[in-house]
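Weekly sync, protein design subgroup
Attendees: M.S., D.O., the rotation student, P.L. (late)

Item 1: inverse folding check
M.S. brought a backbone from last month's batch and wanted to see whether the design step gives back something sensible before we order anything. D.O. pointed out we never logged the input encoding, so this time it goes straight into the notes. Structure tokens as presented (224 positions):
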């Protein structure tokens, strides 16, 4: 329920006007989106697995089910409007679920090959991911090896409708997804807002703002 200022500052630095959306009545979502040109789904706690038809894993962390419902409706509404979308960490997971995908609820079950919950600060990149050449993500951050931070114990499992995996960690964990049927809809598992001082981190937010500027709503370069 708390949003770090780094998201807003990264959007501002890219030339956008950030607007924070608190959980609200779902009937307010469509009128609000009428006034926005892009959406950034942020990080946060675990998603309630009941919302994608799964039983809770014994190691599931605290969940905010009503917040989850709101964000899934928000993601689906923005997606239906073909609004530019950048989804970060939990946001990428929510985007996947909004398109019918599922999550791996507890990555340590895979073994200890890679630590996805680092102790270092968010500005420190701790492990590599491989970005798929020819993807939208690659056009922003470059193809091949990219060093990222890592603060999650869940990740995308079954891929949602018309999504494709465009980056993985060395242990096979999905690190980025994007929509094949959209101009700009990208989800990354790392916290790009903490890496916005790097060219690749800034490029993600720049891509969102540029896509928002080009969108049919046009003009004001706002991102929520």
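Designed sequence read out in the meeting:
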């Amino acid at each position: 329920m708390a949003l770090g200022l780094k998201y807003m500052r990264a959007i501002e630095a890219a030339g956008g006007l950030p607007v924070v959306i608190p959980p609200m009545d779902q009937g307010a979502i469509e009128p609000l989106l009428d006034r926005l040109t892009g959406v950034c789904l942020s990080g946060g706690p675990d998603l309630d697995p009941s919302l994608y038809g799964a039983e809770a894993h014994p190691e599931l962390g605290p969940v905010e089910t009503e917040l989850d419902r709101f964000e899934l409706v928000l993601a689906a509404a923005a997606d239906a409007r073909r609004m530019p979308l950048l989804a970060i960490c939990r946001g990428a997971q929510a985007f996947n679920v909004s398109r019918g995908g599922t999550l791996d609820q507890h990555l340590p079950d895979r073994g200890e090959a890679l630590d996805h919950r680092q102790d270092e600060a968010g500005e420190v990149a701790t492990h590599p991911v491989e970005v798929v050449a020819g993807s939208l993500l690659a056009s922003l951050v470059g193809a091949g090896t990219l060093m990222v931070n890592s603060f999650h114990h869940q990740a995308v499992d079954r891929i949602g409708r018309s999504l494709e995996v465009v980056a993985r960690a060395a242990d096979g964990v999905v690190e980025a997804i994007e929509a094949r049927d959209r101009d700009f809809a990208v989800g990354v598992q790392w916290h790009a807002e903490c890496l916005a001082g790097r060219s690749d981190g800034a490029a993600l937010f720049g891509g969102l703002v540029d896509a928002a500027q080009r969108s049919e709503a046009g003009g004001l370069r706002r991102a929520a």
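Discussion: The mean pLDDT is 92. Residues 65-80 form the longest helix (16 residues).
Action: P.L. to compare against the previous round before Friday.
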